[in-house]
Specification:
- The chain is mainly α.
- The chain has helices at 2-15, 21-36, 41-64, 80-103, 111-129, 134-152, 156-184.
- It has seven helices and no strands.
- The chain is globular and about 50 Å long.
- Residues 186-193 have low confidence and may be disordered.
Length: 193
Amino acid sequence: MVGNVLGLIGLALGWRRNLWSWPVQFASGLILFGAFYGHLTGSAGKQVVVMAVALYGWWQWNRSRSGAADGHIAPRFATWRERGVLVAAAAVGTVAVALFFEAYPNLSWDPWPDAYIFVGTVVAMYAQARGMVEFWIAWLLVDLVGVPLNFANGYAFSGFVYVIYGALVLWGMRDWWLRSREAARPALEGAPA
């Protein structure tokens, strides 16, 4: 429960483009690793990757936070090439991880959905670290599978948390979308700021 609540807080801080999003996501991963270790090895392994991407995100945002006038990271839309790379990485990664999970059945209770959520989470966090608005879409796609999977497997609290994630994702996506459009709008010469 604590790990999931920290995940929600990390997402909310990410919406606000706050650098603290990453240490909170790291702490969430650490707690969830401890909760899953020993009985859901695949989920525990996912948390190791989440913690590694959280470290990368903190480093990336720390480097890039002067990109916006308010001292936070400036959200932007991914280029078509970046979108293609994200989609390809998600597809290839999902197949590779699912096949790995099938080869080692003790790592996952349901290899294909687990692989989809695992890889989708990594893709979403990477896109967030790069300040891409599309990271919100990746989170929505993860939620579409995560919510029913958690409820079906008896993890009602996690399923409920994913529903809250979905609402936060919609609000956050709207905010980042509007901010990225403001940043792309050219300033008129002589116009008040």
